[in-house]
Write a sequence for this structure.
């Protein structure tokens, strides 16, 4: 398993198909597919389909209302070469496991985007000779799975390599041109002032190539962040960077800006709760931002113990939660109300009527275990008694056996 933030780093979404645009129709093992709206791809949380104890996508869809997933990660083979693999080991060309997950999601009316890169591993931009060959490798992924969205996650260590970033940005531009309707997002690391030096150099590379994706997203975590206020501040600062880099006004910059968070405990011990996600979601929607996603669905469940002994896990969040709590914020960003999770109450069974015993008599003598009826209740004698009215005293000789 790669470092958690690598998983995390998967926030670079090249997502396809925007609302109001022509859907990309591609042929794959499942046949042609119809694109979802742009908003669903922009809301798709990350899912590792082969690692980190993959959850059942169908169960997540049923419980949360989620329709889109960001599958991670496509990398170069661990030994090098310019061909796409899942996680550096499983060739896309011969894959059946991820295809099965995609088929399940699509059969339920959902769809997927695929994430390229992440934190760790060898990236295709590092091993392919140029932008054209890098794009050709990614086109294999688009064609095989009939993708309507693709995600470029450009961060350490790749974004420190000028040639690699030139290849990735160039490939993104080629794919955007060759696949009409493709929704492309590029994600990079977040810092308190928006993004760091390498992130700014990546933006300048995009500008120099004349490439504008649907959004540039930052990951405001693992950098000394503390809750939602620090994240929204970083998003505000990143907006200013987008304005100054591309000459956009504030509204245009927000329309090309995205957020990719980490649910629960981050790799560096920061904590982001459901309340933090709600605050950032409110910020994103009120500023008309283009994307809201998180790393990851594999972590969208409670650890046992809840705090995971003070460590960060790739398979649970380290905060108190119900399964798929964080997925519901993505559903809200897509403009849909998540289903309620209140269990259907179990009906109270109608009791079978109990017949009444022989009526109590003031003159009769009763011993322990004798039963009588009085005031439509049955009573049992605790000890010898005579002329003591059943129920007259809490501490009396009679035990109430219920209505009759």
């Amino acid at each position: 398993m790669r470092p958690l933030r690598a998983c995390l780093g998967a926030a670079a979404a090249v997502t396809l198909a925007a609302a109001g645009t022509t859907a990309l129709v591609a042929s794959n093992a499942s046949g042609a597919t119809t694109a979802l709206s742009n908003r669903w791809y922009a809301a798709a949380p990350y899912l590792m389909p082969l690692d980190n104890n993959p959850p059942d996508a169908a169960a997540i869809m049923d419980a949360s209302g989620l329709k889109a997933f960001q599958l991670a990660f496509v990398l170069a083979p661990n030994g090098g070469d310019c061909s796409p693999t899942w996680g550096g080991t499983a060739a896309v060309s011969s894959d059946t496991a991820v295809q099965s997950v995609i088929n399940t999601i699509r059969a339920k009316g959902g769809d997927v985007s695929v994430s390229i890169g992440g934190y760790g591993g060898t990236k295709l931009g590092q091993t392919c000779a140029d932008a054209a060959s890098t794009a050709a490798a990614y086109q294999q992924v688009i064609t095989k799975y009939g993708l309507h969205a693709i995600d470029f996650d450009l961060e350490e260590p790749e974004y420190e390599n000028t040639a690699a970033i030139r290849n990735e940005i160039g490939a993104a531009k080629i794919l955007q041109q060759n696949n009409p309707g493709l929704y492309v997002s590029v994600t990079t690391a977040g810092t308190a002032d928006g993004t760091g030096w390498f992130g700014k150099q990546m933006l300048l590379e995009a500008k120099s190539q004349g490439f504008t994706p649907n959004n540039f997203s930052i990951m405001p975590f693992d950098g000394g962040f503390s809750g939602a206020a620090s994240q929204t501040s970083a998003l505000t600062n990143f907006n200013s960077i987008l304005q100054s880099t591309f000459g956009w006004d504030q509204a245009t910059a927000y329309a090309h800006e995205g957020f990719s968070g980490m649910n629960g405990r981050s790799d560096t011990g920061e904590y982001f709760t459901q309340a933090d996600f709600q605050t950032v979601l409110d910020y994103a929607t009120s500023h008309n931002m283009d994307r809201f996603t998180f790393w990851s669905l594999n972590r969208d469940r409670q650890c046992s113990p809840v705090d995971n002994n003070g460590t960060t896990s790739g398979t649970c969040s380290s905060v108190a939660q119900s399964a798929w709590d964080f997925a519901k914020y993505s559903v809200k960003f897509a403009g849909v109300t998540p289903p309620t999770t209140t269990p259907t109450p179990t009906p109270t069974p109608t009791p079978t009527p109990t017949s009444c015993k022989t009526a109590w008599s003031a003159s009769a003598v009763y011993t322990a275990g004798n039963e009588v009826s009085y005031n439509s209740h049955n009573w049992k004698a605790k000890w010898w008694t005579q002329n003591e009215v059943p129920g007259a005293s809490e501490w009396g000789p009679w035990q109430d056996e219920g209505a009759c």
Q: What stands out?
A: The CA atoms of residues 150 and 175 lie 9 Å apart. The mean pLDDT is 89. The first helix runs from residue 4 to 8.
